[in-house]
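pipeline/complex-builder :: batch 7 item 3
reading input block
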Amino acid sequence: MKSVLGLDVGGTTIKGGVLDPVSGEILARGARPYDQDVPAAEIHARAAELAVELEEKARTEVHRAIGVGCAGLFDRQTGEVLASANMQNLVGTSLSGGISAASKGRRVTIENDANTAAFGEQWFGAGRDEPDLVLVTLGTGVGGGIVIGDQLFLGPTGAAGEIGHIAIHPRPGKSEYDAPYDADLECSCGSYGCLERLVSATAVSRRARSRGLTDDLPELADRARRGSGPEAAFLHQVGRDLGAGLATLVTLFDVDFFAIGGGFGAAVDLLEKGALEVLEERRYGTRPARIAPATLGPDAGWIGAARLTLEG
Amino acid sequence: MKSVLGLDVGGTTIKGGVLDPVSGEILARGARPYDQDVPAAEIHARAAELAVELEEKARTEVHRAIGVGCAGLFDRQTGEVLASANMQNLVGTSLSGGISAASKGRRVTIENDANTAAFGEQWFGAGRDEPDLVLVTLGTGVGGGIVIGDQLFLGPTGAAGEIGHIAIHPRPGKSEYDAPYDADLECSCGSYGCLERLVSATAVSRRARSRGLTDDLPELADRARRGSGPEAAFLHQVGRDLGAGLATLVTLFDVDFFAIGGGFGAAVDLLEKGALEVLEERRYGTRPARIAPATLGPDAGWIGAARLTLEG
């Protein structure tokens, strides 16, 4: 079986690699930095160059199609980037069309990078024996993707699975059950009380500071691992908050396996107990939920993108 | 094209009908009451008798397969009822196998009745022009089903879409953002703060009483329609609470159309504004959400069940 090639177009770098789709062995890996100010055509050309370089490195027969993960919203028919926080010059252009044109008409399939990361983790990462997986990445924000029955769940227009924006706390209104308004829970998405406002690396630093704890997350985690002090109690609560989001995913998607990634995902050992506690309280399904660390790190996005070339 | 036959096995009655799958015209309709104490074989026999009666009434050629909606959890491979609140005698037996045996080996497909109701509403009800729909039924509890791209969304084991148990309020823990504990929010599912605890007919009666308003829901709705008094303000808040649940569905499923059914669904005109307000605040997708009353009433379940016979 031919090897497969995937790219992950990030805000400052295009990463990519070539993979054996049977064994999961990584045969080549590479990256091209680019300046955010360069025009779209330049990004397309860099991506096409990287693809050629990776194929040469891999020294095997590589499937001609290219899978691309990219942050942002797309039109799945045309490949047009509709919105992207970090890659303004790509908005309004077809990323798949551009890379295809720059690489002599090779077929290019694009997908959101959070989705390709989930697809990668379910293929050869934390979920390699799991047909169903939700990847939750705890970074600056909270992202992720949903795989059910070995397929990405995209919803009608591909905008499904915005895990970071599951509401954990409702915006206070005139309900007799509301907590007081708290400005910390206002979310950058325009909403309030999103999972991202509670368990992203950014949110956890902020919450730690407000409790008089260190906002250096590796240090916070180390202290929690060493004892049962306020750091451990705080991260247990963060785990419970994460569990509230996961519980909603169980209730609605009937999934039972969660991979936790992103920078703050390194603290999953400290979050797991609290999260499972809430999942046990709230769980509606019949299968016990399980939580594991994501294992592919920065390769997850391009590996899942490469998997896209096997479809359609 | 042959007509299709569906049954809806409820706690005290089997309802059913025959439908033209092209026009949606109802060609026959009928029901058989049964006593909850009768053995499973008796229920299977009543269902098979009703199917024959409906075919005779319909006076057209009817597809031999039978679609069955039923409350409870099933094993989709064997048709075995794993759990059911109202039909204890069916638990541990194969409902599809039993009805099939009682009807000379006709193919029988079963599905959860909330799912078949959603499938019915999307076929010939509120969502007949919508490929994607979530049905939310406001009754004793809150139920519903999710249809995406003209297909039921069932999840890996068929237990997906437990809309009534989306968490709106988290169980108070040691989070700095929690509201105080409120026993009203304890849910019969063992969880806390579920949508069902806020917007089911039962919950709205309870909440109305605690505000000194009438707990007679038609009367409460009439008063709200006549003026802008406390009844209207209260139902606006109930609409906001409903909207919080719908917003989570938009965030995770990227759906944009909601049909509201069930007894208290008759007040959807009073809930819509509050619900849309929250959807507008929280919405993460690109399409504006819409809310409409379910239109098939008690026929939705068997109509959706009949639709199952066209598949597989």
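note: Chain B touches chain A through 65 residues (CB under 8 Å).
queue -> next item
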